[in-house]
Design a protein that fits this description.
Length: about 400
């Protein structure tokens, strides 16, 4: 079939391919430990589930405004503003089914064919896909393992120029868990202002942070709110991946254009899901803290376990639920290594190269699985890698 040029580059996400291979092995009786899919293993908190069910029973199953119910946009403006030290109004908030529409549509609204877009590599695969659909030129900037997997700022400064329309940031990051330090954000902000670029700051993991680390938003730096799109959502913090609820915060004029794109694509986000979102933000937050403490315990187990394996080195990330160990010393491609670990150890992980060429030599492991599973996975990995 001859598909339109703008779609010919699209690929499935690697995680789903690995999941399919792992499930094929499970069907033949093997027990596989899944460290490949990036979603919380906890159920959505009970108060949020109840709010969604009650809303359905009350008939809140109709269309809403395309940019979301005012009651939800109000609590998002207040909560997201408070957490970032910003004063926001609900008209700057666009609610969507998941965070992804607020990645995809602002890019379609802003990027002309031929515009350059800087994005992190290794990075979330959707970034490159959405840039290409818009006809933009993807300009990858490597992340540096030795600098919390923040941008290589020397490369960034060489690449940013007057043709750069947008700079995409993701802190804490998928796939590395790295957090961009404030001094780096300050340098990026200076460049964005000098070259009159937009910044898209994907902050979906902003609440999944350890060691009391501070995760500043570039939007909080002077002069940046008016050129930044903050992307956030409920999927990771409140274990709501399948509910599909997220939001973007952006200048009102851009919010109006993104709203038009939502109007003519998804229409709106499910009404009862938005009601559950109000409960997530206004209900008790202690359960979020409890989950974060458990993630931190798991992070320490997996990082210590990986660093104890000869040949593997692993940074201790300050956010998200991913680790990105360096496996270069084994001399395998990361894809061959991921296949080998599935076959030999029964542990499903993703090759770093699924996140771009600068992910080569690394693996991505997700620790949103039980503590016992993680300990078992570490034993199996140690055994499998010992014999290489
Ligand atoms: N941004 C990043 C960095 C992600 O890792 C993900 C999901 O894995 C998303 C955005 C999408 O979130 P949602 O499922 O809410 O659309």
């Amino acid at each position: 079939m001859n598909f339109a040029h703008r779609t010919q580059h699209l690929q499935p996400e690697g995680a789903y391919q690995v999941l399919a291979n792992a499930q094929a092995q499970e069907a033949s009786g093997r027990q596989i430990i899944h460290l490949e899919i990036g979603q919380p293993d906890f159920d959505t908190f009970a108060n949020i589930r109840q709010a969604g069910i009650k809303a359905i029973n009350e008939g809140l199953t109709r269309y809403t405004p395309p940019n979301g119910m005012l009651s939800l946009r109000e609590v998002i403006a207040e909560d997201a503003g408070k957490r970032r030290g910003l004063t926001l109004n609900p008209n700057q908030v666009v609610v969507g089914p998941g965070a992804k529409p607020n990645l995809f549509f602002p890019v379609q609204a802003l990027v002309e064919p031929g515009d350059e877009v800087i994005y992190p590599n290794p990075g979330f695969p959707t970034y490159e896909a959405m840039i290409r659909v818009a006809g933009g030129i993807p300009v990858p900037v490597p992340l540096l393992e030795d600098n919390c997997f923040s941008f290589d700022l020397d490369v960034f400064k060489r690449l940013v120029n007057d043709r750069t329309k947008l700079i995409i940031l993701n802190s804490p990051s998928n796939p590395t868990g790295g957090v961009i330090p404030k001094p780096d954000l300050e340098q990026i902000a200076v460049a964005a202002q000098r070259h009159n670029c937009w910044v898209m700051s994907d902050e979906i993991y902003a609440r999944i942070v350890y060691d009391n680390a501070s995760v500043p938003s570039i939007a909080s730096l002077p002069g940046m709110l008016e050129r930044t799109i903050i992307v956030d959502g409920f999927s990771k913090t409140y274990a709501m991946t399948g509910w599909r609820l997220g939001f973007g915060i952006m200048p009102e004029k851009l919010a109006n254009m993104v709203t038009l794109l939502l109007t003519h694509s998804v229409g709106c986000t499910a009404q009862f899901v938005q009601v559950a979102g109000v409960e997530a933000l206004t209900g008790p937050q202690e359960q979020v803290d409890r989950v974060m403490a458990e993630y931190q315990r798991r992070r320490d187990t997996i990082v210590d376990g990986l660093n104890a394996i000869p040949g593997v080195t692993c940074q201790r990330p300050q956010g998200a639920f991913y680790v990105f160990p360096n496996i270069k010393s084994f001399g395998f491609t990361s894809s061959a290594m991921a296949d080998l670990l599935l076959d030999k150890a029964g542990v499903a992980v993703l090759p770093g190269s699924d996140f771009g060429e600068h992910g080569e030599g690394y693996l991505r492991l997700v620790y949103s699985t039980s503590f016992e599973n993680l300990q078992l996975a570490m034993d199996r990995l140690r055994q499998a890698l010992k014999s290489l």
